[in-house]
Every structure is written in C-alpha cells, then in structure tokens.
Amino acid sequence: MEKYLDLFNNPTILRYTKLVLWILVIVLCIGIFRRVLRKSIDNISIRYKAQKGVEVLGYVLIALVILMGFTFENIKDYTIIIGLFTAGITFTLQELILSIAGSFYIFFVRVYQPGDRIEINGIRGDVIDIDSIYTTLMEIGEWVSSDNYSGRIVKISNAFVFKGPIKNYSMDFPFVWDELNVLITYGSDVELAKKIILDNATELLSDATKNSLAIWEGMVKRYYIENAKIAPTLAISLTDNWIAINLRYITDYKLRRNTKHELFELIERSILSTEGKVTLASNTLQLLKIPEVDIKLKQQYEGACEL
C-alpha cells in the first residue's frame, strides 16, 4: 500500500494524471455541447458549422492543456512535446496537407489547367477552377449519353493527383480517335460501300486530319511513342447476320458526338442513293414454316371409331 501511495505522491505521476483528466473533461464537454447544438438549432448549415466550431475549439484547448501540462525544465522535454504536437497535427490534417501539396504539383508540373477535359477518380468533366484545395469540374456523362454536360458541379480534392491516374483529353494532343460501325447486308456491293464510307469520312474530317497531323508529329518527337495513321481507316468483319464495316477516324475531343452524327447522316444518304446496290442491315428474325403432315387412317379403324 505504501508503494502505491508513494506512486501517487510522485509529482510526475500527478502531473500526467491531471493532464489526462483535463483532456477527458474537454472531450466530454465537446460531446455535450454538440448534442445541445444539434437539438437547439434547426438550420442544417448553421448547426453543422456550430458543431464544427465547438469541435475545433475543443481541439485547441486540448493542445493548450498538453503544452501547459508540461514544465519545460530542459530543452529535451520541449523538443519532445513539439515533436508529438507536430506529428498529431500532421496526422489529423494529412488530407489538407496533401491537397495543398497537390495544388503546387498541378501548377508546376501542369498536370491539367482550367479548360482541360479530364477524368480523375472516375469522374469526367471540364476543369473550370483550381484553388489551393479543390479542383472544380463541370461534369460530363453519368446519366447523359456521350460527352454532354450533366449540369452538376463537382469538387475533387487536389490530393487525388497523388492517388491514381489522371486522364487528360486535351493536354498536348487535343484530339481523340473514335469508331463508327456501318452494317450492310450480305449481297451488297462491299467495295462500293467501302468507297462511300471512306470518301465521306475523308471529306468531312479533312480539317481535323490536317490540324492533328502537325500536333501528332510533335508528340512522336517528344514522347517514346510509335507513329500512328491519322487519316480515316476501314476494317471489315463478318457476322452471322451482316457485314460490319468499322470506320476509325480522328476528331476534336469536344466534337466527338457531333462528328459521329454528321458521319451517320452523310453515309446513310449516300447508301440510300445507290438504289439497292448497298443495303443497310438490321436484326432480322426468320420464321420457318412447319411442314404439313397428312395422316390417313385405315378404314377398319374409322369403323371402330364410329362404334
């Protein structure tokens, strides 16, 4: 018993015990105040901000109590406390610190800039603002087809530049390759169909092909990348139902949907003007007629049926 009494009479033990009790009291007060504010304030925004304010104030008080609870009799105690305090702040605010570091990384490395179309953390959109913590996007896709705006403004933490890939549609090479499948029936003039598709694509995409060629040549010189064909190309595949002609072409990343629409219109109009030499295919269902069965019964069986 005397040993235990001597233990509690130790000034260092008393100092740490008081420190722990003060911290527990502050934590308890934070919980009580948050509960009172939750019940007394109806406005969600004001209630949230008030609760966060009480929480931050409590953390500041805890930090002050920890600093005041130690007597800095020598520099060793002082450095230990400062180290522990700094480590705690770093752990608590690690996401904020990463976001601020991410903003510098975005600015100096030029990962993306306002006006670029990117995909980050599974979200696609056009960058409309970059601040010290968040990147703001005008979202595209989701429930809206193709590359149209959904109307939602999305804020993404800048810390995500360190956590995953960033897909940039417009940096260095503001063009994308796209494909269009034209389905024709068996018996159609395949060579004529190929000529129609390629001629229309070449005419419509002449400006995009010309503008992208110079930029692509610069990409080949700058990066370790193989050269690619910029002009429209075709590939044919045969299926059970039709002949599929695949058109691969390059277009401006913001004009992808409109380019595909114009190509479809031109190709359809040209195919219809062939007067049946080329016919567009569709899913068909062929019904087979069941052969007729002629059943003749012998006369004796017919008599038995009459009885």
Main attributes of the structure:
alpha+beta, SH3 type barrels, Alpha-Beta Plaits, single chain, 5-stranded antiparallel β-sheet
Biggest beta sheet attributes: 5 strands, antiparallel
The structure class reads alpha+beta
Distance between the termini: 118 Å
Range of helix content = 40-55%
How many helices does DSSP assign? Answer: 9
Q: What is Rg?
A: 37 Å
Strand content: 15-25%
Q: At the third CATH level, what is the topology name of the largest domain?
A: Alpha-Beta Plaits
Indicate how many domains the architecture comprises.
3
Low-confidence stretches are: none
What is the residue-mean pLDDT, rounded to a whole number?
Answer: 81
At CATH's second level, what is the architecture of the largest domain? Answer: 2-Layer Sandwich
Q: How many E-type strands?
A: 8
Strand arrangement, largest sheet? 4-3-2-1-5
| Helix and strand sequence | HHHHHEEEEEEHHEEHH
- Can you tell me the overall shape? elongated
CATH class placement of the largest domain = Alpha Beta
Describe this structure in words.
The protein is of the alpha+beta class. It has three domains: 91 residues, no CATH class; 58 residues, SH3 type barrels (Roll); 98 residues, Alpha-Beta Plaits (2-Layer Sandwich). It is 50% helix and 19% strand. The protein is built from nine helices and eight strands. It has a five-stranded antiparallel sheet, with no helix packed on it. A three-stranded antiparallel sheet has the order 6-8-7. A hairpin with a 3-residue loop joins strand 2 and strand 3. Helix 2 runs antiparallel to helix 3 and helix 6 crosses helix 8. It is elongated, with a radius of gyration of 37 Å. The mean pLDDT is 81.
